[in-house]
Structures are given as C-alpha cells and as structure tokens.
Amino acid sequence: MIIDCHGHYTTEPQxxxxxxxxxxxAAHKHEHLAPWDLKITDDQIRDSLEGAQLKFQRERGTDLxxxxxxxxxxxxxxxxxxxxxxxxxxxxxxxxxxxxLYPRNFIGVCQLPQSPGVSPANCVEELDRCVTQYGFVDCNxxxxxxxxxxxxxxxxxxxxxxxxxxxxxxxVPAMIHxxxxxxxxxxxxxxxxxxxxxxxxxxxxxxxxxxxxxxxxFIIPHGGGAVPYHWGRYRGLALNNGKPELTEHLLKNVxxxxxxxxxxxxxxxxxxxPIENILFASEMVGAVRGIxxxxxHEFDDTKRYIDNLSSLSAxxxxxxxxxxALRVYSRxxxxxxxxxxxx
Amino acid sequence: MIIDCHGHYTTEPQxxxxxxxxxxxAAHKHEHLAPWDLKITDDQIRDSLEGAQLKFQRERGTDLxxxxxxxxxxxxxxxxxxxxxxxxxxxxxxxxxxxxLYPRNFIGVCQLPQSPGVSPANCVEELDRCVTQYGFVDCNxxxxxxxxxxxxxxxxxxxxxxxxxxxxxxxVPAMIHxxxxxxxxxxxxxxxxxxxxxxxxxxxxxxxxxxxxxxxxFIIPHGGGAVPYHWGRYRGLALNNGKPELTEHLLKNVxxxxxxxxxxxxxxxxxxxPIENILFASEMVGAVRGIxxxxxHEFDDTKRYIDNLSSLSAxxxxxxxxxxALRVYSRxxxxxxxxxxxx
Lengths: 343, 343
What we know:
The structure is a homodimer. The first copy, chain A, is α/β, with parallel strands linked by helices. Helices cover 43% and strands 11% of the residues of chain A.
C-alpha cells in the first residue's frame, strides 16, 4: 500500500471560497458570519476530487492520501479566535465528508482553531472531536499563526503544552505546517512554507521538548525545508548548543515527508535522513502544478523519483511508502481496518 | 589560487563590541555616540586574525578570503539611519585596515548603511567610498533591514534601484545577506540566514529585475538557502508564474556559494546548479564552529568536501575555487594585481 501523508483539499468547491471571502470581510468589521449558510452537496465534493486528487491517485498508483484542509487557507491571522474556530470546524467537517464519500482514498487530518496570541488550549476540543468522532489520524499545527511574523512562542515553549498533552493522550502526531504568508516580501509556497519548516526544526534543536514529551511526534513537511540539505550545519549547531547528535536529539520524534520535486533532492533526503524517518508524500494538488518539461511528468509526482532511486532497497521503499506511516500515525492501522483496507 | 568568497570578521577586538553596546544603548535614547572614541591598534587586529582566519587559511590551503564585517553585526534595525551610517563606516574602515595589514590574505567587502524604511539611495556614497578609495570588490546587501520582519520591499522593487544603479556603474556584485534576527522564534544563523537566502531567491523568481539590470550580479550565500535542494519546486514555481527556466531567468545574474557543511549537500549543489554559478566559500569563522566528530575535521572546512567530490573534474573545481570568482567579482583581477598576487 502506498500512503501519501501530505495532501490538502486545494480543489474545494467555489462556495467555500465565497463563504471565506464573506467571513473575512465580516471579520474586518469584527463581525461573524453564520457558518450554516454554507451549502455544499455531495456531488459538488465528488466533482472537486474526481478530476484532481482521485485522478492523480489512479494515474500514479498511490492508494491513500492523508488529507487535510488547504494549508494556506487556514489563515489563522484572519479575524479572532471565534472566526478561526468557525472556519476550522467548517473545513474539518468538509474533510470528514470527503473521507466518508471516499473512505478507501482519504484519511482525515484536521486543522486547528489557532489564533494569534490565544493559547492553543482552545484547540484541544476540536482535535478531540476530529480524532474521536471523525477518525482523523493527525493534525496540522501552525507554528506561526501570525502568518509570517512569528509572533508566537517557539514550539518548545510551554505555551504549546496543552495541545501537546492532548496529542499524546490521543496518540496522534502533528504536521508542523504554516499557513499563508501575509507579507508580500515572503511568498507563501516558495518561501514561507519552506522557511517555516526550517525555523520549526531549529526551534526544536535548541530545545529539550522531547524530554517532556517522549512520545510526541512531529512531521516536518516539504522534505524538511532546508534542513536535510544543510544537515551538517544543523548537526553542528546542535553540538555547538550542547545538544547530542540529531539522530539522538530529535529523530525519535521528528519525521520528514518527501515533498521534494526532483531526483537529486530526493537522493539527498534519503541519503542524509534515516529511512525510518521519511514518509512518502506529494502535497498534491499543491504548491507546484503542471508538467516538468525536462521529465514529461508532473513536478509533484514524487513517487516516480523514489521508484527510480537505485540507492534504495525494496525494503527501504516499503518503509517510506507504507510502514513508517503506519508507525507514525498510530491510529492509522485501526482506521484502515475500520474502512476495510486491512484485515 | 583558492578564493573563499564568504568570510566575515567575526573575531573582532573586544573594543568594537564595547563600542557597539554603548552605541546601541545611546540609540535606544535616540542619541548618537562619537565614533572616534573607538581605538583599536594594528596589533589588536593582528591578534584577532592570526589564531583564527589566517590559521585556517594556512591549515586548509585556501589563499584569499573576500572579507566583510560580521553579518549578524550589521544590525540595520538598531537606531536610525545615522546610527547605521556611523556603525557601517567604522566596520568598513576596520575591514580596510585588515586588508591593508594582510593584502595577500583579504580583499574587502563593505556592509551598507541601510536602515528600515530609508531609501537605499543613502548607501550609494558609502559603496562608492569603499570601492573607489579602499579597493573593495563587493558589498553585502541586506534584503530585510528590519531583522526578520521583512518590512522592506521585494528586491525586485524600484525601491532598491539607486543601489543597483551604483553597483552596475562600479561593476561590483552584492552578496544578499541578512543580518541578525530580532525575533526569538527565528534563530539567526540556523533559520533567518537560510530563510533569507530562500526568500530573496523567490523574490527574484517572481520578478523581471534582470531585464532592467542585465549586468547586475547577486551572490546567494549558504549554498543558496533551501533553493538547490528544492530546485524542482523553484523551477516549477517559475514556470507556474510564466517565467522561463531558472537557468535562463536568473542564472546569468545569480550565483551560489558553497557554505554547505557536509558532503551530500555539496554533491547536490554541484549536481543541480551549473558549475559556472558556484563560488567557493566557507563562511569561516562563522555560523558553525568546531570539529565534526564523524569526520574529524571542522564542519566549515568546505574545501575538503569539494576536494573529495569525484563527480567534479579538475576543471570544474578550478572554476569553483578561482575562475568563477574572477568573473563575478569584476574588480578582483585588478585588485590581485595591485597587491602583487597576479602578474
């Protein structure tokens, strides 16, 4: 089984965008919009997926996508905590409907109702709801709800502990994923996403977070930002700061996905990071769309890069495609049984 | 000849730090300090270099460092434009003294008196002074004088044109190098530096800057941040935004240094980026100090990684170590003659 651990619902029906536009306008006036005004039919959801994520799954031979709301769309900086909560519940409900319509294609991941300056204790209830009622196996945690200004605390700060405690209790990991950049100098998918990954990993290097939470698990998306390419730099910075080797310090708790869109990058990732810490992912339909004129294949068809890597054994590939995901997403195995994908 | 194009004066005499501390305190009270109060002797400068940069040059077999003030120390966000100007002139004067004491070891690079919200037109005079009076061959341009908040315009904005016009007139490139991060969430050398490189490159992707300035040259340090690792992503984002291939779009004007502290990273860089666009650099004495316990050599001894790359021909290595630098730093050849390093 090939499990893509990083897919977003980036082909949402237009009604969702229309609602969000109105909600944002209301938020600017410190008002709130009635979420029940949004109506999306099952057919509209099917239409939004059939020609995109489902088509790519079939064409590329991937089985299952661990699926969350559009990351750039989380927009935690918009409005206040109530705006964020109402939007988050809507988005998560929509993911649940996707997973209900296509239980063998999508497993849910929730966004969280974060809001700048608000304790993530306010995320605990929504996380619990999505995991226990909807069967979601993961959440996306935004290390920078201010949208590029990094106005919150380091991920190692006790500020975040309420949500970590709930994650540990539920035994779900978090993908550390920023949302849109509000800063015109910092491009969302070309700079803020990658920078967010790098910044978060560096926060973890300087911390002893996993002494407090030995079973907490984070996935750093986009191949770990700049981290694997600068592995020597990060090993050195860890040692310079009195920490042990990264393998010892972080890699019992931190995983990288494979959203790296060319073969040399994938080679580097799989050479530098232990195979046990790599999870297959494509981020489709995501940041980079269209066909690479040099290969004739989609940039984000990351399965091809891995398939073609002669440096990896069949066993390595199976770990990346399936086994690691089943280990990191502790609830995934049971979920696969529940939807009939495993005996 | 082996030319290290990225070295900072990070071992400055204590007096400089003492002065800067007092200057910063004065700036907080909207006051200015008399720069002539700072006294540093030639022997103090010699002492600061003999056991560090000069020792490493000898040990590693590098000949010459293209040398600038400490990048984190530029601190353009501290005080106002006058603070920045006085500090910048001091720092550049100190680099000039280094280059005068060791003309065969160091060639100067200036910092610029940038200040948040102030037009970089105020940098033109200092750039001219350093190039025409001191023989400097390059400048460090900070794309984010706000120190992590990206409050200035994209590098492609006309805001920056006055300094580009002067660079073109003088025929000097700029290394695009941020300074210290003022944000505790964003580590200076582990996140802000690398993010700055990535953000700047993405700004250039979205622009047509080099249509306006076909001879303008930028060096992106730290191996180009995350860019080479995510080369497929950046090629795709360029194409998605209606731009041509990166080689066509940017690589006639943009170069990457080799400050990547492990072999797989160096392999990737030299595989992905054309050899003509790679400049040897170590950033010593810089971000990562000490010996890699896995190799027994300093992390930032980047010459070793390149020496050991069997994928590169002797000619490739000569380009990286010397020829590319002589091409990119147009004034370097004449400077080497002036100090007797070339016939």
